Structures are given as structure tokens and as C-alpha cells.
Amino acid sequence: MTSRTSPSARRSLALLLSLLTCFVGCDGTEAPLDASDPGEGGSGDPSALRREVLGALGENVILPTLREFATQAEALEAAAGAYAADPSDENRAAAQAAWRDAAASWQQAELMQVGPAGMAGTGCGVVGAMELRDEIYSWSLTSTCRIDQETVAESHADPAPLDAELVNVRGLDAMEYLLFVETDDNTCGALSPINDAGTWEAERANIRQRRATYAHTAAQLVLEEARGLRDAWEPSGGDFLADWRGAGTDGSAYDTSQRALDDLATAMLYLDNATRDMKIGDPAGITCMDASCIDSLETPFANHDKEAVLANLEAFGRLFHGESPDSMGLGIDDLLLAIGADA
Fold first, then answer.
1. What local confidence, expressed as pLDDT, does residue 339 receive?
2. 328 - beta bridge partners?
3. CB atoms near residue 121 (< 10 Å)
4. CB atoms closer than 10 angstroms to residue 258
5. What pLDDT score does 16 carry?
6. Which of 173, 130, 113, 119 lies closest to 308, judged by CA?
7. Is the four-CA dihedral 302, 307, 313, 319 of positive or negative sign?
8. How far apart are CA 214 and CA 243, in angstroms?
9. What CATH number does the domain located at 46-268+299-338 have?
10. Which residues contact 334 (CB under 8 A, 6 or more apart)?
11. Where are the alpha helices (DSSP H) in the chain?
12. What is the pLDDT of residue 28?
């Protein structure tokens, strides 16, 4: 994917984002795809097309993305482990490279927060939600001061106690800070206990090692969650894929196929709400109150923001076209064509 977008492609993207809102709702009502559609059970059953598209996207896009991320998480855990064992410049660079690969992979999954990755919430909560996304990547909740506090505590060295902490001190976002920050200072205020009591200063000589150990602990938790999310979808595991492609049929977690499509449309609107407004608009001063909110960059330490945005765009395109590594299949574009959108 290139970093340039043609005017016609931008117009198509704007139209698509508008059309996606037509799918989003809370009740999952099965509306006909067009005025001539006979409805449920007829020869032009809209639910059948929805299930075809959902099944294709689950098999060809969502599950392969989760499998790829689990593979990248394994490589990240190994690289972080080597860095913790020997915090040399060479091992740090290798861990940073592994983080970039894993982060780029996850940025595609950011637009696929359906089922186990989604948030339960209230009202329009995601069906099948296990809230695993925040366990893996909790941007924009990350707190570098809290990460600094954990760095000089002992829980950072053990996955179990770290897992009991809030999500804003673990995950890929915490790892970004731990692996890429260049200073041995902390980001807490002078009155923070780690500064006021001299705790940080007493450990300053060990900060690099502590951060390396912490990064490995966080990587172990990310790997555990990555495998859990993948396995929740796998036919050989939790088989959420069966619920997804069978939406609206007996035994599925979804009462209707439209309800699954609603969740997918909401997930894809991440491109509008997070990518456009938060990742681009805030730092550029377009959607924030100040002239520029440069401190709101998604990855200020790794400088991985462009790659994150491009991965978001690529994921959107894959869901739109039903793109697998080998071919184009059924995607959201087929549903849009069915309701009369221009090709």
C-alpha cells in the first residue's frame, strides 16, 4: 500500500464511511437490502448474503490477521526476553524491531474489534465481547508515569502481579515506552512518591535493566492474550468463527445477521473516530482545542505513527474488498452494491 491516495479514492472513502453508518444500529433489525428483496426465507434473502460476507471476512481476513499477530507476538516475546537477559544496544534494537512488526500487525486488528476483542459495555455492547483489545493495546489510556512507578516496584518482573494492574501499564503501548524511551529520567511530577522519596534516584543505575525486564514481562502477557484471542476464533478452539458466519441461525451468539454486521460496521468506523480524528486530527491541531496537540501522538517514543495509520487503512481496505493474501473475495463492497451504491 502506498502513502498517497488519489482524489477519487478519497471521495470513495468518504462515501463509504457515510454508507457504513447505514448499517450501524443497536437492535440488529433485519432490514431488506433493497426494496424488491422478499426478506427472510425468500429467494433473495438478505440474511443469506450477509452471512456469506461475514463468513468470508471471518475466514479470509479476521482470523488470518489474528493468527499473524500471534506469530508476531511470539517473536516479540523472544526478542524482549533476549533483551532482558542482556540489555545490550544490539538486543535493544532487535526488540525494537520486533515491537514495530508486532505493532504494525496489531494496527490491522484495531479495525476488527468484534467478538472477543470487543468491549461489552451497555446498550450497543459488542456481541461475544471478552474485552481482549485493551489487554493487548490500551492506547489512548497509556500512563507513562504509572509505568515509571511500576518500573521501580517489583510487580514489573512477574506476569501474574503485572496482569493484576490496570491495562494502562501493560500491553504494546507500555512496551513502546519501555523499549524506546531514551532518557533514564521518569515522567512523574516532583511530588510523586518515586521522586519525593528518592526511589527513582536510588534505582537510576538499574533503570535500563528494570525497563528491559518489565518489557519482557509485558511481552509475555501480550503473547498470552494474542494466543487467547486467536484461539477464541479458531474452529479448533472457541470457534467464535461459527457464531460469526452463522449469525442469525440457531446456536449463534448473534440473534440476527444484521447484528453481526452492526458490530463490524462500528469496528470499521475506527478509521473515522480514531485514525482520522485522534491519530491525525489531534496532533495536527485540527480536532484538538489548541493550535497543535503534538503530545497526543500515538507512538511518541517509537515514531511509528505513519505506519500505524497506513496499517489502519490497509485493514479497512481488506474488510471492504474481502481481501485475503491470495485473492479478493466477498466484502463490505458487495453489501453496498446490493443496496444500490455505485460501483
1. 80
2. 323
3. 10
4. 22
5. 58
6. 173
7. negative
8. 37
9. 1.20.1420.20
10. 49, 53, 322
11. 7-20, 46-57, 63-85, 89-109, 132-136, 144-151, 159-163, 171-180, 193-196, 199-203, 207-233, 240-245, 257-268, 270, 305-321, 332-338
12. 57
Q: 299 in the Ramachandran plot: left (φ > 0), alpha (ψ -120 to 50) or beta?
A: beta
Q: How far apart are CA 174 and CA 218, in angstroms?
A: 8
Cα(1)–Cα(267) distance, rounded to whole angstroms? 21
What confidence score (pLDDT) does residue 343 get? 57
What pLDDT is attached to residue 3? 37
pLDDT score recorded for residue 41: 41
Indicate the residue type of 294: I
CB distance 322 to 60 below 8 Å: yes
* DSSP conformation class of 323: B
Q: How far apart are CA 225 and CA 85, in angstroms?
A: 23
Residue 244: all three cell numbers together: 460469526
Q: Cell for 265?
A: 460496521
DSSP string, 13-61: HHHHHHHHTTT--SS-----SSTT---TTSTT-HHHHHHHHHHHHIIII
Global confidence as pTM: 0.89
User: Distance between CA atoms of 176 and 178, rounded to whole angstroms?
Assistant: 6
Domain residue ranges in the chain: 46-268+299-338
**Burial of 133: CB neighbours in 10 Å, binned 0-12, 13-18, 19+:** buried
Q: Which residue has the cell 515506552?
A: 177
pLDDT at position 2, please? 36
Contacts of 202 (CB under 8 A, 6+ apart): none
Tell me which residues of the chain have a pLDDT lower than 50. Answer: 1-12, 32-43
Helix axes of 171-180 and 207-233: crossing angle, nearest 10 degrees: 150
Give the cell for residue 87. Answer: 540489555
Q: What is the DSSP string of 253-264?
A: S-SSHHHHHHHH
